[in-house]
Amino acid sequence: MPASPSSSAQAARITVAQRLRELRKAAGLTIVELATACGWHYSKTSRIENGRTGPSAKDIRLWCAATAAGEGDAGDLIAQSLNAEAMYQEWRRQMRVGLKAVQESVVTLFHQTRRFRVYSSTVVPGLLQTEGYARGVLGIASAVHDLPARDIAEAVQARLERSRVIHAPGRRVAVVIEESVLRHRMADEDAMAAQLGSLLAAGALPAVSLGIIPMSTRRRTQWPEETFAVYDDKLVTVELVSAEVTVTQPSEVDQYLKSFERLRSMAVYGSKARTLIVRAIDALHP
């Protein structure tokens, strides 16, 4: 099982915290003296140094001023801190800018990526979603996070637009899903039928490998995991209930790659995968 997906974010935050502690100690200041110089309670200094609270850009500038650190140190630490916080993005905070903006925020990453690996135990991955299915998924996301559904139509189109990258030359896409994904009713019957039919077509694309892990698998070598995507062996995004986590630490990326390979090895492909999809289509109209 991979390490906690938030550990990369915490490790980055700890790196900033350790550097700030070093600056305080080099300046010969106690935690209380540093707090007094910055104008806050000493407990805040302790929380920052222990990585429990991420410092704001203003906090870092005050800290560096109190320890006589250079402006360059402040700039570097601010950049590192912002990067650490960006690794852990709460869904609600992301979606305040609108569902469409969330879809468009990863367009550059999609276009830069040559090899996609995606695993999902819950829904059809966005790269393979049809319009009706995407509308259902984004509608649920809007309701779950208690957000207005004002731009769902625009968000759906943005998702479809970014997904066209899988047809671009030089792309390779490996998708592994649990069979239960085929049965989860994320949209009405017509939309589900269209989505399942689209999966039949997607599995035949030269650049796409679609694997399905049957519910009847007798002996699993990896339990169902949270939805995750690996981009070019360099970056992983993990979907949690409350947030999306970005993992860039090489050792953790490697763990996700190994998990993906174990999940992939349990999946069926080709005619066996098509049989599972056809059964799911038939189940829509018992």
Summarize it.
This protein is α/β, with parallel strands linked by helices and 286 residues long. It contains 13 helices and 7 strands. It folds into 2 domains: 7-86, lambda repressor-like DNA-binding domains (434 Repressor (Amino-terminal Domain)); 89-283, Endonuclease, Chain A (2-Layer Sandwich), CATH 3.30.870.
Written account of the structure:
This protein has helices spanning 7-26, 31-38, 42-49, 57-66, 71-86, 91-95, 99-104, 107-112, 131-144, 152-163, 189-202, 250-266, 270-283, and strands at 88-90, 115-120, 172-178, 208-213, 228-231, 235-239, 243-247. The chain has 286 residues and is an alpha/beta fold. The protein folds into two domains: 7-86, 434 Repressor (Amino-terminal Domain); 89-283, Endonuclease, Chain A, CATH 3.30.870. It has 13 helices and seven strands. The two termini are 38 Å apart. It is elongated, with a radius of gyration of 23 Å. The chain has a seven-stranded mixed beta sheet with strand order 1-7-6-5-2-3-4. Helix 1 packs antiparallel against helix 5 (71-86) and helix 9 (131-144) crosses helix 10. 52% of the residues lie in helices and 13% in strands. Mean pLDDT is 85; it is low at 1-5.
